[in-house]
TrEMBL record:
Region spans: Disordered: 196-230
Taxonomic lineage of the native organism: Bacteria, Bacillati, Actinomycetota, Actinomycetes, Geodermatophilales
Name used for this protein in its record: MucR family transcriptional regulator
Source organism superkingdom: Bacteria
């Protein structure tokens, strides 16, 4: 190898050997450089892909686009009770409107009572009393017209025996202002005979027995008062 043998000059053979050597070196260098580029390029691509994938956020699941996550929904908290401030005044309660002084006396503001002697002889003429009282705490006005007053006598079975307006009715305005607790007394004389409305029928003395006298002022009635005829 080192001493070529042939018909050509020695330098020719050396040149050929140098050319072949240079080609071999070039091929080896190119192969080594290509392998280095492949290795370095693959690592760079892998690193770049990994970093790109790490930088990009994961896509939101399709279900969460429609139904929000439970962790994203805030449940409202109940309000805390507010303690009453003792320095603040207590709320006022609306009171019922007071009755106007000097206004009309309603039936609820009045008390009506009948007084009798308790006992009377058959055919006698006892005196009864119709008592009207302002039972309220406010002065009020009421018409005490005699045409609005009436006394009736009832027997033990509750049948009507006599009425004060049957035969001798009276009428006339009598508007009064009644002070609180004021009582007005109206005496009524019974003639001792039976009667009917408009004074119809025969009038006779009722027989002995237990009776009751009931009074009224317009629409306000009294409890019954006892009367015994002997």
């Amino acid at each position: 190898m080192l001493h070529p043998v042939g018909p050509l000059p020695t330098r020719v053979y050396w040149r050929r050997r140098l050319v072949v050597l240079a080609v071999l070196l070039a091929v080896l260098g190119a192969g080594t450089w290509g392998g280095f580029l492949l290795l370095s390029g693959g690592s760079a691509n892998a690193g770049g892909s990994a970093s790109t994938e790490a930088a990009e956020p994961a896509p939101t699941p399709a279900l969460e686009l429609v139904v929000p996550s439970l962790t994203a929904v805030r449940t409202p908290e109940p309000p805390e009770p507010v303690a009453a401030d003792p320095a603040l005044p207590a709320p006022e309660v609306a009171a019922a409107p007071p009755v106007e002084a000097g206004g009309p006396c309603s039936d609820d503001m009045l008390a009506v009572e009948v007084r009798t002697p308790g006992t009377a002889a058959v055919g006698a003429k006892p005196v009864f009393e119709l008592v009207v009282v302002n039972a309220s705490a406010t002065p009020c006005v009421r018409d005490l017209d005699k045409g609005l007053q009436e006394l009736i006598l009832l027997d033990g079975a509750g049948a009507r025996v006599w009425g004060s307006n049957d035969c001798f009715p009276e009428s006339g305005p009598d508007v009064r202002t009644l002070a609180p607790g004021e009582a007005v007394v109206f005496p009524v004389v019974w003639g001792g005979l039976t009667s009917a409305p408009d004074c119809a029928g025969e009038r006779t003395p009722p027989p002995p027995g237990s009776y009751a006298v009931r009074g009224r002022l317009d629409t306000k009635s009294s409890p019954d008062a006892a009367l015994a005829l002997t």
